[in-house]
Predict the 3D structure of the following.
Amino acid sequence: MGLTRDFFIKLSENQTLNSAAKRYGLALGANKVVAGVDIPSTIKAIRVLNDKGITATVDNLGEFVFSKEEATKAKDEIIAMIEAINESGVKAHMSVKLTQIGLDVDESFCYDNIHEIVEKAQQCGNMHINLDTEDYKHTIQTFEILDRLKGEYKNVGTVIQAYLYRATEDIDKYQDVRLRLVKGAYKEPAEIAYQTKEDIDENYIKLIEQRLLNAKAFTSIATHDHNIINHVKQFIEQHHLDKNQMEFQMLYGFRTELQQQIANEGYHFCVYVPFGQDWYGYFMRRLAERPQNLQLVTKSIFTPAVNQKIAVGAGIAAVIGLAAAARKNR
Ligand SMILES: Cc1cc2nc3c(=O)[nH]c(=O)nc-3n(C[C@H](O)[C@H](O)[C@H](O)COP(=O)(O)OP(=O)(O)OC[C@H]3O[C@@H](n4cnc5c(N)ncnc54)[C@H](O)[C@@H]3O)c2cc1C
């Protein structure tokens, strides 16, 4: 399965396929995990979630930002979404990856961009801005930028990756900051991160307990892992913790029945809602993550318009071939 994973990671990193896919709207079944390509369709999708008692954290998809122009465009799109959330009254906040707004171009330019975003969000009903964490180098830079912002703003927080050895200290340091806790999505070396699923899961549980017992701010537990979720629920009951100080999070389109069940049980539930034309890389990474996610790929969306374009077609044809093979092998 390593080959399939590497294959989808390669597709996700292919700039030609990424830019070609942008022209076709959501193809391939990506509409199951990406809420929309524009603001109105995304607000509509958030309303559907809100009607089910679920809130949203919204991610403006964007890849390959190497210039100030691209970073400024992304920043403007994020601000437009903040305004749309505020004006429409849907229950949602934003998640932002700092690389998308210029972290690799110039750190102080990126700081100005995120400062503007957090300021705008504060004006729009004190909306929360979550700084997503990425690979280790960018995660450290993200923490440094958070340290500067948190003196001035309360509506900003970040993500702690349980695979990092340093996570325990970070949880302690950020007791009064709103945090999302995740297992961690990147490939990091053994010098800085746990490598096996068992070690990562064990540390994840330890960190969640540490956080829930000591936090002075809101906590999001972001996982699709029902064993972890059940453990957290039991822990909350045993320690008589306040359910209103935490929420569970999952990605849009994944385990939707479980999402609804948890929300119906009286827990706060928030869905990570990606939107935008830059859906291709995000979708390929979801396919890389779990072989079973190939079920998302839909043959019928293989439209003639897309098919005609060799560039996108090459990637799509390969994906559909793999999806068919995966179905056969199940
Ligand atoms: C809302 C959200 C925000 C995130 N933000 C970040 C971030 O900022 N930085 C970062 O590094 N990472 C982030 N991640 C990714 C995270 O770090 C993990 O890589 C990712 O969530 C996979 O781990 P998991 O805990 O969901 O469970 P896994 O370890 O992938 O799965 C554990 C078990 O759960 C079950 N399971 C998992 N998925 C499914 C499914 N779709 N259907 C049925 N059963 C399933 C299976 O039994 C599986 O064996 C985020 C994840 C979420 C959900």
